[in-house]
Amino acid sequence: MKRVSLVQVGFGTVGGVLIEQVMGNRVLWRERFKLDVSIAAVAGRSGATVAPDAGGLDDDVLRRLVNDRRRGASGGTATSLADALPGIVNSGPTIVLDAAAGEGTVDLDVQALGLGAGLVLSNKAPLALPVSDPRTQALWSETASTGRLKFEATCGAGLPVISTLQSLLDTDDRIEEISGALSGTFGAIFSAVGAGVPFSEAVRDARAQGYTEPDPRDDLSGLDVARKGLILSRAMGKMIDIDDIEVHSLVPDPLVAVSIDEFLDRLSDQDLDIGRQAEESLATEMSLKYIMNWTAGGGVTVGLRRVQRSTVLGALQGPENIVSFRTGRYDQYSCVVSGPGAGAAVTAAGMLADMLTLAHRLAG
Ligand SMILES: NC(=O)c1ccc[n+]([C@@H]2O[C@H](COP(=O)([O-])OP(=O)(O)OC[C@H]3O[C@@H](n4cnc5c(N)ncnc54)[C@H](OP(=O)(O)O)[C@@H]3O)[C@@H](O)[C@H]2O)c1
Q1: Which residue of 145, 197, 234, 274 has the lowest C-beta tally within 10 Å?
Q2: What are phi and psi of 43, to 5 degrees?
Q3: What is the DSSP annotation of 183-231?
Q4: pLDDT, tens digit (0-9, with 9 covering 90-100), for 260-317
């Protein structure tokens, strides 16, 4: 039986479901792959709970940690994961799963790779650091399809966006253009706007349905989409910085720093302009979409665009994501990946598929 130990960093919405999926799939993996997967440690911001032996944490302990976090109770002990990690990696093949949010885990991610562990990210922040940060090189040097860092879930959650791009690159296809609707939030908002709902109301509705971040400006600034464009660009070897990306923010300058309530109230100032753009688009068989576009000659741009309704991108409805690759081989008809681009279950499963790829290699 092959063995692999997981270290779960961040067990919020995605990390909690991921732990449950590991518990639910263990028997299947044992039978199908002769692979024994245990969870050696689980870490949140306040510290880590580390298994006392190589058998990993008990299911009861894991369930309690996940449930405590969901109830808002602070589970776990305050063990430093950075201190515990060398011991875990020394005892056998190890994969760190970073489902945290923000840059606070970057040092740990770099440490894990340095120790020889595998690393799976849904957290975009480590891959979006400035090029000048030495940790950028440490992380990106392991991102080729043969490397120990896998990051499918950073772009389109569980959808096979990164793996498709890497397959195209590995078979020496020439990537001409990547276009995508990579934000479920914008998808939901502009589908409603296209159906005649005022922009500010569409934003409120999307927020009420849980499609936006608690502060919708985090989505409407376009930064999250820009980060995904940055990751796709870097995955093709173009090591650009976020400042190199032209981002069209839908947050007007005077509303950047006001309270969320004031922001939502004053957003109606935009309704007329965006409503007019939507009507003009409709009249010319186009639809308004918030698009990430990369071209070989032009780099990454992110913003509101009019797209032919007859294209797969233009016909997209609701919070679905879509990414279209136009390449030397997929020239007349693009290679298209689409489906739900957010959600705990699909994101966690995307991370686990990456984990299994690494596990077969590291424990093989
Ligand atoms: N949700 C989705 O559909 C989706 C889809 C694709 C990608 N992602 C990405 O996946 C990541 C997780 O998303 P989520 O929705 O699960 O977010 P979340 O519910 O806010 O959970 C984030 C978790 O990260 C932990 N954390 C933050 N900083 C940490 C640190 N320095 N060390 C250890 N843990 C830390 C938090 O710990 P505390 O419990 O202590 O606060 C929390 O448990 C994010 O980066 C997100 O962008 C999410």
Answers
A1: 145
A2: -130, 140
A3: -HHHHHHHHHHHTT--HHHHHHHHHHTT-S-SSTHHHHTSHHHHHHHHH
A4: 999 999 999 999 999 999 999 999 999 999 999 999 999 999 999 999 999 888 988 8
- Asked if pLDDT for residue 361 goes beyond 60, the answer is yes
Under DSSP, is residue 37 helix (H, G, I), strand (E, B) or coil? strand
Which of the following is catalytic: 34, 124, 150, 228? 228
**Angle subtended at Cα 45 by Cα 79 and Cα 93, rounded to the nearest 5 degrees:** 60
Tell me the average pLDDT across 308-334.
Answer: 93
**40, two tokens:** 């050696």
pTM over 0.90: yes
If you measure from the C-alpha of residue 201 to the centroid of ligand 1, how many angstroms do you get, rounded to a whole number?
Answer: 28
- Residue closest via CA to ligand 1's atom 18 equals 12
The yes-or-no answer on residue 228 being catalytic is yes
Best substitution site from 11, 19, 21, 45 to test ligand 1's pocket, by max atoms within 8 Å of Cβ? 45
Please report the domains of the chain, with CATH numbers, ordered by start residue: 2-158+345-363 (3.40.50.720), 175-340 (3.30.360.10)
Give buried/exposed letters for 191-222 (b at 16+ CB in 10 A, else e): bbbbeebbbbebbbebbeeebbeeebbebbbb
Ligand 1 centroid–CA 122 distance in Å is: 8
Secondary structure letter of residue 102 according to DSSP: S
Pocket of ligand 1 from Cβ distances under 6 Å: 9-15, 43-46, 69, 99-102, 104-105, 122-124, 153, 157, 342-344, 347
Max Cα separation, the chain? Answer: 66
Query: Which letter, b or e, does each residue of 107-138 get, where b requires 16 or more Cβ atoms within 10 Å of its Cβ?
Result: ebbbbbbeeebbbbbbbbbbbbbeeeeebbeb
Residue with CA at minimum distance from ligand 1 atom 20: 12
Angle, CA of 191, 193 and 195, to the nearest 5°: 75
pLDDT, tens digit (0-9, with 9 covering 90-100), for 181-192 = 999 899 999 999
Separation of alpha carbons 156 and 160, rounded Å: 8
C-alpha distance from residue 207 to each of 83, 95, 136, 224, 325 (Å): 40, 35, 33, 16, 30
